[in-house]
Amino acid sequence: MIEQTDTTKSPTDEEITESPEAPETDVARSVGSSTSSDEEPETFPREYVEKLRDESAKHRTRAQRADDLAARLHTALVAATGRLADASDLPYDAEHLDNDDALTAAIVELLERKPHLASRRPSGDVGQGASASADVVDLAELLRGRAK
After folding, report:
1. How many Å apart are CA 88 and CA 90, to the nearest integer?
2. CB distance 87 to 119 below 8 Å
3. What predicted TM-score, i.e. pTM, was given to this entire model?
4. How remote is the C-alpha of 135 from its chain's centroid?
5. 3-class secondary structure, 51
6. How far apart are CA 127 and CA 125, in angstroms?
7. Radius of gyration over every alpha carbon of the chain, rounded to an integer in angstroms
8. Which residue in 11, 21, 58, 110 could disulfide with 15, CB within 3.0 to 4.6 Å?
9. What angle, 0 to 180 degrees and rounded to 10, lies between the N-to-C axes of helices 46-81 and 100-113?
């Protein structure tokens, strides 16, 4: 407590008396304060706490794995549409996994904003590669010199 009679002067060291320390609460004891560790046993055994920490780590790992798989599924669904050159251009949204209409709408909206992201895969006959010909090549006739 601070005893001060005159408000204009500051208290001296003799005027300041130390207040008794606050009693330790149950919360502080359960956390395991350093002062009570010698007198009281731990609230939970160390093995139990380590088991809980390992279990929590496994749950975090599984959750991260599920998030990674959901992102891969999203990318695969976008790639399956064939509308984007790079399926990772569409940001991940969990709604796209369950709702095909939302996925299609998101792709259409992205292509309206950024048409350069569209797939440029040629389709149809572009005049390259193997083509079906009506002419039959007879190698025996070529060897005899009777080529058509």
Report:
1. 5
2. no
3. 0.52
4. 58
5. helix
6. 6
7. 39
8. 11
9. 70
